Automatic annotation (TrEMBL):
<keyword id="KW-0813">Transport</keyword>
<comment type="similarity">
    <text>Belongs to the binding-protein-dependent transport system permease family.</text>
</comment>
<keyword id="KW-0812">Transmembrane</keyword>
<feature type="transmembrane region" description="Helical">
    <location>
        <begin position="22"/>
        <end position="48"/>
    </location>
</feature>
<dbReference type="Pfam" id="PF00528">
    <property type="entry name" value="BPD_transp_1"/>
</dbReference>
<feature type="transmembrane region" description="Helical">
    <location>
        <begin position="160"/>
        <end position="185"/>
    </location>
</feature>
<keyword id="KW-0472">Membrane</keyword>
<protein>
    <submittedName>
        <fullName>Sugar ABC transporter permease</fullName>
    </submittedName>
</protein>
<feature type="domain" description="ABC transmembrane type-1">
    <location>
        <begin position="81"/>
        <end position="291"/>
    </location>
</feature>
<keyword id="KW-1133">Transmembrane helix</keyword>
<dbReference type="InterPro" id="IPR035906">
    <property type="entry name" value="MetI-like_sf"/>
</dbReference>
<feature type="transmembrane region" description="Helical">
    <location>
        <begin position="269"/>
        <end position="292"/>
    </location>
</feature>
<feature type="transmembrane region" description="Helical">
    <location>
        <begin position="79"/>
        <end position="104"/>
    </location>
</feature>
<feature type="transmembrane region" description="Helical">
    <location>
        <begin position="227"/>
        <end position="245"/>
    </location>
</feature>
<dbReference type="InterPro" id="IPR000515">
    <property type="entry name" value="MetI-like"/>
</dbReference>
<feature type="transmembrane region" description="Helical">
    <location>
        <begin position="116"/>
        <end position="140"/>
    </location>
</feature>
<keyword id="KW-1003">Cell membrane</keyword>
Length: 299
């Protein structure tokens, strides 16, 4: 038997056994399709119907009516704007910047300071979202901790949850979620070779110059990954806002998840609420594509 014949025989054997390689994955694939793909498919179907929790005896297919209604709804457009503001302030600016700053400072801090700071920041992260919401509600409310401190310092106080609700919930989300960014950036900064920064320091580069020209370029992929994960998590925040403001006063802190919940369960419009959920999913997908494209261009 020639070498070419042997190779051809081995290729035929591999092709014959190739389907068997997927056999161990079959149970997991079936479970994913059943418990993940099934509900997602059913939600997509509901989004194109007029399903209601109460008041309707039948459910009819209405096509794109729910989506047309959303784009013509002033409350929906307000929720989109507030969602983008909430995401920009609490994720793109707050968690990302504060997490990077804490990670950089903790690299130079003593071990007791690193341990204490890390414990405090991570404690806020591991709290259940609803618990964190009630804690921040107690902090920002008219008779809360923040106003008590301001009154003690002789500074003007106000009802933050009424005058600046979207900023209050944004800062609350920063307080709760910064730990994730800090951990990501701590791991990324620890991977930077000390020889590079030491050489730059010997060449006369200052701290800010080293950070801008060496540190940031070397952790840019971690920055992109952290921004993407933080953005997706922030887009879906519901319990924190619901515990603090319930989307109010009025609709001044009603982001898309809160608006979706209000339409689907408070107003019993399941079909319309599900359509809003699909639009929220589309917003998250667009953010992901933008981040993935930027990260691919940087390689």
């Amino acid at each position: 038997m020639t070498t070419a014949t042997k190779v051809a025989a081995q290729v035929r054997v591999r092709r014959r056994h190739r389907p068997l390689r997927w056999l161990p994955l079959a149970p997991a694939t079936i479970l994913l399709l059943l418990f993940l793909g099934g509900p997602i498919g059913y939600c997509v179907y509901i989004a194109f119907t007029n399903m209601q929790l109460t008041g309707a005896s039948t459910t009819d297919f209405v096509g794109l009516d729910n989506f047309r209604r959303a784009f013509g709804d002033d409350d929906f457009r307000n929720a989109v704007v507030l969602t983008l503001v909430f995401t920009f302030i609490s994720s793109l600016i707050g968690q990302n910047t504060l997490g990077l700053a804490l990670a950089a400072l903790m690299q130079r801090a003593s071990k007791p300071v690193r341990t204490l700071t890390g414990s405090i920041v991570i404690a806020a992260w591991v709290l259940p979202e609803i618990v964190a919401g009630f804690l921040l509600y107690a902090f920002f409310r008219r008779e809360g901790t923040l106003n008590a401190v301001l009154d003690g310092l002789g500074l003007p106080s106000q009802n933050w949850l009424y005058t600046l609700p979207i900023l209050a919930v944004s800062f609350a989300n920063v307080w709760r979620g910064t730990a994730f960014s800090m951990l990501v950036y701590s791991a990324a900064l620890s991977e930077i070779p000390k020889e590079i920064t030491e050489a730059a320091e010997v060449d006369g580069a200052g701290g800010l110059s080293r950070f801008w020209h060496i540190t940031l370029p070397m952790i840019r992929r971690s920055i992109g990954t952290n921004l993407m994960l933080n953005t997706l998590q922030t887009l879906s925040v519901f319990g924190l806002i619901w515990a603090m403001t319930r989307g109010g006063p009025g609709n001044r802190s009603q982001t898309l998840p809160v608006f979706m919940y209000d339409q689907a369960f408070n107003k019993a419009l399941i079909g319309y609420g599900t359509a809003v959920a699909l639009l929220l999913l589309l917003v998250g997908a667009l953010f992901s594509l933008v981040y993935l494209r930027l990260m691919r261009e940087e390689v």
